[in-house]
């Protein structure tokens, strides 16, 4: 049966279908619903972070251990996560990081 999903619900569903097992996020409209939607999937450990940098670092840590991971934040929060984002491009990620 087909189900109609909102955009953030579709992102969560796509992450689940892709095998994401860890997700971290910093709350902020319009992206807060992504992590909230991820909590419906028992296979995914979803947790809030204290800021966007911590969300990315937590997801990166999971990905470095071989897990598929995801970090979500609103667009203006990417500047807070910019330093680790640039550094991560030089590291070898074993799992997968979105």
Structure in words:
The structure is a single chain. This protein has helices at residues 7-17, 32-38, 52-64, 82-88; strands at 22-25, 45-48, 68-72, 96-97. By secondary structure, the protein is of the alpha/beta class. The protein has a single domain (18-97), classed as Thiamin diphosphate (ThDP)-binding fold, Pyr/PP domains (Rossmann fold, 3-Layer(aba) Sandwich). Strand 1, helix 2 and strand 2 (45-48) form a beta-alpha-beta unit. Helix 1 packs across helix 2 (32-38) and helix 3 runs parallel beside helix 4. It is globular. The chain starts with 6 loop residues before the first helix and ends with a strand.
Descriptors for this entry?
Rossmann fold, four-stranded parallel β-sheet, alpha/beta, 98 residues
| CATH homologous group name | Thiamin diphosphate (ThDP)-binding fold, Pyr/PP domains
- What is the distance, rounded to the nearest whole angstrom, between the alpha carbons of the first and last residues? 28 Å
| Shape verdict | globular
Total beta strand runs: 4
CATH architecture: 3-Layer(aba) Sandwich
Strand content is: 15-25%
Q: Count up the helices.
A: 4
User: Structurally, how many domains make up the residues?
Assistant: 1
By oligomeric state, this entry counts as single chain
Rg, alpha carbons: 13 Å
